[in-house]
Amino acid sequence: MWEMGILSRMRHALPALLLVLPLGGALAAVPSPAEIVDHAPDSAWRTVPSEQLLLMKTNDGRRIVIELAPQFAPVHVANIVRLAQSRAWDGGAIMRVQDNYVVQWSVRDEKASLPTHFVAHPPAEYDRPLEGLTYRSLGYADPYAAQVGFADGWPVGGDGTSVWPAQCYGTIGVARNMPPDTGNGQELYVVNGEAPRQLDRNLAVVGRVLVGIEQLGALPRGTGPLGFYTDVLQNVGIQSVVLASDLPVSERPKVQTMRVESATFATYLATRAARSDPFFVHPAHGVALCNVPVPAREVL
């Protein structure tokens, strides 16, 4: 409940806060969410551990940095780490790009021998207990869940006892066949459009794209059923997928996400819900969970 109290106070105090928020050495009466992010103090950011980062490169030069979510799907994530360490995706391909839905890719050979300790049939890791996670409420109603907010910095739905990652733009999940299949991590997808929240609690969420989602979103759309490419020559080859901690220190990407428990994020959230920078004539005074993307930045 403390988050709700803070958010309520933030809404009432927002104009005063914005008047004193420094932007580039000057005062701006009404900064935008982007300006709030650009001028966030270092204390508002957390560095993603290298053992939770995947670096994906395609044959046509695209570079994607992915944060893994072991707190939500530990068995699936462990499978993905083992696949990366065995270089199973090197030579694989992106073979599906469905407009306003998902981009999907696969390992080089789904029939190849599986890595040691790989779990061929993981449990249905679609939700987990709220206990043990740091939680901040969004503060607005949601049509898909009784409660929504951010657990350990990830957008989630919940029922007061359990939480589940929301299928927002940039979310990475595990493709699967019909139940009881849960997928094993050899085929992954990323949401590339309007959040398909009907998928919440129906597939294992294993990560999110922190860098390069726009490069995946710019891929040519597949013309076959469900957006699959109809010709293998249309597939986008994967050069490599590696765990950042397996790279030399000098080659590891350093990516940070904003701490959702920070005062900066509270201001950012409130501003997303009530845009009052000069372009906006009528602030919405409301916001959907997936319209508050947790800010990320790469430190070069």
UniProtKB/TrEMBL annotation:
EC class (word): isomerase
Enzyme Commission numbers on file: 5.2.1.8
PPIase cyclophilin-type domain residues: 55-222
Pfam families per the UniProt record, alphabetical: Pro_isomerase
Signal peptide: 1-28
SUPFAM superfamilies with a match to the protein in the record: Cyclophilin-like (SSF50891)
A GO MF term: peptidyl-prolyl cis-trans isomerase activity
Keywords: Isomerase, Rotamase, Signal
Protein name: peptidylprolyl isomerase
Protein source organism: Gluconobacter cerinus
